[in-house]
Amino acid sequence: MSQEQSPCFIDWAITAKCNLSCRHCRGMAEEGLSPPRAKKLVSEIAGLKPEWVIIEGGEPLLRKDLFSLLALMQQKQLETHLITNGMLLTPEIINKLKGLGVRLMISIDGATPATYESIRQGASFDRVVESARQCAQEGLLEAINFTILKQNYTEIPAIMALARSIGVPRVTFIGLKPCQYYPEELLTPEQYGQAIRLACQAAEETGVEFYFDEPFFWAAVREWGLSAKMPSVGAGILFSETTACIFGEYLFIEPSGEVKPCSFAHMVVGNVNEKPLGEIWQGVLASPFFSQIKDIKSRSGHCRSCKYFADCMGCRSRTFILTGDWFAADPCCPLSLKLAAKEG
Q1: Measured at the alpha carbon of residue 329, what is the angle toward residues 183 and 119, in degrees to the nearest 5?
Q2: Which of 288, 304, 307, 287 shows the shortest CA–CA distance to 296?
Q3: What are the pLDDT digits (tens) for 81-119?
Q4: Which pairing describes strands 258-260 and 251-253: parallel, antiparallel, or unpaired?
């Protein structure tokens, strides 16, 4: 990677505090960056010139200095996207976020009260839908985020219909991060195939855009001849040129200041309490590991013989969690079933 390259984006979990207990929470260290260090970090992020910044948590609205940090991001002309569970939104907060030029995403991981409230314990389905509707009316809501679990993936058509009724233009489907219930809730390759088909069909029926944040999405669409559209230009946090794994092409900052090459990763590349973010990024760019991991010759299993490798590369962090090998084939890829049959 070029030493002058900027990270695609910066994803900052600004606080570990949360007002809910979610089934798919990955858990975080409780300590957070001090207000002075957080303020300095905004300047360091701006210096790296990412295309955008994601602010998440925990629940970011629980950080006391959030609005001063968002104001600094606006001053630094950073395109900022904030992910919230929606429970703490009020008309006053909505107006503040709108004035700060923030683009909002609300997480709704179920299309029915029963599913949503069992996944997000302590939340209210009626309340989150009303908050989403208010944000949509203000032109503030750019997407509903839907984390895909075994418990909810069959509700993909219904969440697309709900998005249309709320007036939000798109849904972002997010792969499950490693968490306490990971083996129980992670989709199988067959279920991922079903989820992709459901999303494509629902988009046709509802007219709602979607982004399926899994590296094998476009490979499956092309292999199966499905109908799917790239999201519109300026579609928020989407790296719409590709859905290939961008491990090491962006940075994820934990509340504690630890920096990772992916929000899924069990790998720390530095800590902003110990060195500036720019130095950490230069270390990533200079590391042979991050170049090697994108080389098909380094891979084993079905990835090595897949014609879609360059457009996919398999999720590296998930693969490592499930196999202990950064260079193994992605165990969740729906195309692996056909490739495995051929190899067998």
Answers
A1: 25
A2: 304
A3: 999 999 999 999 999 999 999 999 999 999 999 999 999
A4: antiparallel
